[in-house]
Inverse folding.
């Protein structure tokens, strides 16, 4: 596996400063190197032309020398006062004819570059001196047939000294420049990253209570505006989610308190009744009565618990257990058969009209509609009518239950689907409608089908509508 | 008829046993899955009532063991879980019925009788049901009492048929709603009260013997009263 080469975990500022310094160092060192090379080349050119001049001079002397003595004399005349220039003239057999003072005492010349650059080792302990050396052959005028070997050497120490000095100066300068550019780089990066710190400061101010989109989009550079924008969008989403959670939580806690209220009355009834009965000796009929009454009350409680479990499950949005396509009118007819006796009893006309298909769970649909009918029949005065109206929509079916009766206060309308909501608070004892959960269950069922429930009430007609959309596929 | 109850909640188990004994069954109680399995394997029961959540072996394991050993007696599950998957799982394993807690005893009793009757075959080959002087002709869909014809709506006929087929049994409202109107959920029980009242008006009104009786807190029963 290829592992990415990673720097230790450094701050962005350190990282950028480091790279900036590295670049500055490279440039400065490169320049220094170039400068040094140029200087070095300049000095060797200078040395070479000096040696060239001297070679011409020696050539001239040789051409006009009449004897070895004459040659020696003339060479020493013209060369001895040249500081740092050393000449040695030998015959091919190695006989030394002339040597300037201080000619490097060495047993061998070290060939370093090509023939012209030789190093002399002198007096081991004194270290190494460098000479630029040129060796050539020439014939003296007096002995044309025996060429002489001439070695010319120039001491490069003062050049070297200069170059060393230059190197030292450049080194110090470069080091200082790198240091300064590092500092400048750090400052630049620090200033450049200030928008990031601004965002950080804003982010630090975000709490669960203050989730508003607060990143300064306008105030930061374009590259970071995007980031700020994205962060803002994220904050908005979080805010929405939080509000939904708070809403859920509030509803949950309301639900718990409603539940406790709903349980309190029947339990306290049963308790009182039972204890009063137990307080004195009674006949069997009395015991039977109290037990029957308790059983009725307990059945209501069991029903309430079952309804709440159903509601909780449906609201949690589980998948519909048995999804199928069926005709709404069939279910409406079945429910008419169920409720006809009650309607007849109260002198209410109960009818159904229209048709449309529903995609969903038949049992749940029937339950939803049943709750609406039960509710409508309860609130319709004698002689009124209740109608089921099914309308096929382009992408679903609307099922409404309409009943005549007193208008419902518009302020109350939206709360009708709430759990445990009863339009008449005075009716403390729940009837058989399951403790005011019926409409909440209906709403939950419709919403589990992706639809919605609504209610309107005007001019003596109240109408509950359920829209069941077709699924998308 | 012998019934085995496997239920770990002692109070529930004891009351179920008492209730079933008093309803004319011989009922035994086991408190754990393994005790229940042991009893079921050796006791020759006609029906097992099985709680799902049990110590040692759960209800499903007990049922699976029973079926593996070739015991085919009907099984009725009791559970606190109202989950479709549970229901499906129970039925797949070969349970015969399923009751979610909290349930009413009348409901349980009615279901127990339905299952046991199913096992025996209908036992009612006759096309005419009779209780005292009340007659219900299934083929001609006619009802008469003391020779006098009674006109009933279709649903009233269905209700009376149910009550007569199961005469002497207390039928809870939920069972009636389910059997007569196919309302398989906790529906408005007021509807059943109204329907029974109207039926009673047609069947019992003006008669010295009232056949359709309300058992408070439980449901309705059709029978000749013991003390006229």
């Amino acid at each position: 596996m290829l592992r990415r080469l990673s720097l230790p975990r450094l701050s962005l500022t350190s990282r950028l400063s480091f790279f900036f310094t590295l670049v500055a160092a490279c440039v400065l060192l490169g320049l220094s190197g170039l400068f040094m090379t140029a200087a070095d080349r300049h000095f060797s050119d200078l040395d070479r032309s000096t040696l060239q001049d001297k070679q011409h001079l020696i050539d001239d002397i040789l051409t006009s020398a009449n004897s070895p003595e004459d040659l020696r004399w003339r060479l020493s005349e013209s060369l001895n006062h040249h500081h740092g220039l050393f000449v040695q003239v030998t015959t091919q057999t190695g006989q030394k004819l002339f040597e300037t003072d201080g000619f490097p005492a060495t047993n061998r010349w070290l060939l370093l570059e090509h023939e012209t650059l030789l190093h002399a080792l002198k007096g081991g302990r004194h270290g190494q001196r460098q000479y630029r050396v040129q060796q050539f052959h020439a014939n003296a005028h007096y002995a044309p047939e025996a060429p002489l070997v001439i070695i010319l050497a120039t001491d490069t120490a003062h050049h070297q000294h200069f170059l060393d000095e230059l190197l030292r100066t450049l080194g110090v300068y470069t080091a200082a420049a790198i240091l300064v550019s590092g500092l400048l780089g750090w400052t630049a990066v620090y200033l450049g990253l200030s928008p990031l710190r601004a965002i950080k400061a804003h982010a630090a101010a975000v709490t669960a209570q203050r989730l508003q989109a607060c990143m300064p989009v306008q105030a930061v550079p374009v590259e970071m505006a995007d980031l700020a924008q994205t962060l803002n969008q994220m904050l908005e989403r979080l805010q929405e989610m939080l509000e939904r959670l708070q809403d859920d939580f509030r509803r949950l806690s309301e639900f718990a308190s409603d539940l406790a209220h709903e349980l309190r009355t029947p339990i306290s009834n049963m308790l009182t009744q039972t204890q009063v009965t137990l307080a004195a000796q009674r006949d069997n009929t009395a015991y039977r009565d109290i037990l029957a009454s308790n059983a009725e009350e307990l059945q209501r409680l069991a029903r309430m618990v079952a309804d709440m479990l159903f509601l909780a499950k449906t609201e949690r949005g589980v998948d519909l257990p048995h999804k199928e396509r069926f005709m709404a009118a069939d279910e409406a007819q079945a429910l008419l058969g169920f409720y006809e006796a009650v309607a007849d009893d109260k002198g209410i006309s109960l009818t159904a009209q229209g048709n449309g298909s529903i995609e969903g769970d038949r049992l749940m649909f029937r339950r939803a509609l049943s709750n609406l009918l039960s509710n409508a029949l309860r609130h319709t005065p004698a002689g009124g009518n209740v109608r089921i109206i099914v309308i096929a929509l382009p992408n679903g079916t609307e099922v409404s239950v309409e009943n005549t009766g007193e208008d419902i206060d518009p302020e109350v309308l939206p709360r009708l689907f709430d759990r445990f909501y009863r339009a008449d608070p005075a009716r403390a004892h729940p009837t058989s409608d399951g403790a005011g959960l019926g409409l909440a269950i209906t709403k939950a069922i419709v919403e589990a089908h992706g639809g919605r429930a609504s209610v309107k009430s005007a001019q003596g007609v109240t109408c509950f509508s359920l829209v069941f959309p077709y699924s998308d596929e | 008829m012998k019934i085995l109850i496997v239920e770990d909640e002692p109070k529930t188990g004891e009351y179920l046993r008492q209730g079933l004994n008093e309803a004319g069954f011989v009922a035994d109680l086991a408190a754990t899955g393994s005790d229940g399995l042991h009893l079921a394997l050796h006791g020759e029961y006609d029906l097992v009532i099985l709680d799902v959540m049990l110590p040692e072996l759960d209800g499903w394991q007990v049922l699976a063991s029973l079926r593996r050993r070739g015991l085919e007696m009907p099984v009725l599950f009791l559970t606190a879980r109202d989950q479709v998957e549970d229901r499906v799982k129970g039925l797949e394993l070969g349970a015969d019925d399923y009751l979610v807690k909290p349930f009413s005893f009348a409901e349980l009793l009615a279901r127990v009788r339905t299952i046991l009757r199913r096992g025996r075959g209908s036992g009612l080959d006759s096309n005419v049901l009779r209780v005292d002087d009340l007659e219900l002709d299934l083929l001609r869909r006619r009802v008469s009492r003391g020779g006098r014809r009674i006109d009933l709506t279709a649903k009233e006929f269905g209700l009376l048929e149910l009550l007569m087929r199961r005469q002497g049994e207390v039928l809870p409202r939920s069972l009636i709603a389910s059997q007569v109107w196919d309302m398989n959920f906790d529906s408005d029980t007021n509807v059943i009260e109204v329907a029974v009242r109207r039926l009673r008006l047609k069947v019992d009104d003006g008669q010295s013997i009232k056949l359709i009786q309300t058992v408070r807190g439980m449901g309705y029963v059709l029978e000749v009263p013991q003390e006229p």
In short: The radius of gyration of chain B is 19 Å. Chain B has two domains: 2-120, 128-222. Residues 79 and 100 of chain B are 5 Å apart (CA to CA). Residues 105-120 of chain B form the longest helix (16 residues).
